[in-house]
Design a protein that fits this description.
268 residues, mainly alpha, 11 helices
């Protein structure tokens, strides 16, 4: 029997956590981070990329997400909640970005799966620090879902909350993939439920990967700048993960509708 969550007023501390989550989820822009730190408009980088770069980015993004899903299913296990090691993962991703920056777009198929897997580890670390059991299939997919936050598609309504809009768009796909993985595992990567999940997340993740690639294409950035861009990239997803798993922690106590209503009432 499914017992509904207890509905009760949130404490002041929980409302403060929710306000922080909303600030992270709604005000973080990867593009603005790059512009503020590097001082180079991403549009300059787009103009310098070779013909057919978009297809290469989309293919690499899907491959990277599939590798991340394989990692999640195979090796993200339950461990005791503790303080997350976000700086450690930034260092690892920065190193991989420096190597990728030295070789340009050609390195993307190799570098992106590595950096995405490191980012997934950091996302799972943050989920665990918020009290979530990362050995559960649903939690693993919620970690993967974080890669969709912050990247809009042309079908999105700009007047709505980007966070809740993305969750609503992915909810059915995530549920179907969770059911499939629970029953059969990742034995068939071409199963419709898995393909739909990867495609839907990739349509949003690929937007940010494109911005990352364009930033690295600016000549003055080079290998050192490539590492910095990757640090900004993981910082974006760490913020998305922190906000998302605060919301999910509160949902487990008060239910989705109560938390979403409180979230929407918060002004930032």
């Amino acid at each position: 029997m499914n017992v509904p969550p207890v509905i009760a007023p949130m404490t002041r501390a929980e409302l403060q956590d929710l306000a922080m989550a909303k600030s992270l989820l709604e005000n973080t822009s990867f593009t603005i981070r790059i512009a503020n730190i590097l001082g180079s408009p991403i549009e300059k980088g787009f103009a310098l990329l070779p013909r057919g770069w978009s297809n290469a980015v989309n293919k690499a993004a899907k491959s990277a997400l599939m590798k991340a899903l394989e990692t999640a299913v195979a090796s993200l296990g339950k461990r005791t909640p503790r303080r997350s090691k976000e700086l450690f993962h930034k260092v690892l991703v920065g190193a991989s970005g420096g190597i990728g920056g030295a070789f340009g777009l050609a390195a993307l198929p190799v570098e992106l799966p590595i950096s995405t897997t490191i980012m997934l580890r950091s996302i799972a670390d943050i989920a665990r620090s918020e009290g979530h059991n990362i050995s559960l299939v649903q939690t693993k997919l919620e970690c993967l879902e974080v890669f969709a936050f912050g990247g809009r598609t042309s079908a999105d309504n700009a007047s709505e909350s980007a966070y809740w809009l993305t969750r609503a768009a992915l909810s059915k796909t995530v549920a179907e993939a969770a059911t499939y993985l629970t029953q059969k595992g990742l034995a068939n990567e071409t199963a419709p439920a898995i393909v739909r999940l990867i495609n839907e997340i990739a349509s949003r993740f690929g937007v940010m990967v494109s911005e990352e690639v364009a930033a690295k294409a600016v000549p003055i950035i080079g290998a050192a700048g490539g590492g910095l861009v990757n640090v900004l990239f993981i910082a974006h997803f760490q913020d998305m993960a922190r906000g998302h798993f605060i919301v999910k922690r509160l949902e487990a106590l008060y239910g989705l509708d109560t938390v979403r209503d409180a979230y929407n009432r918060i002004r930032i």
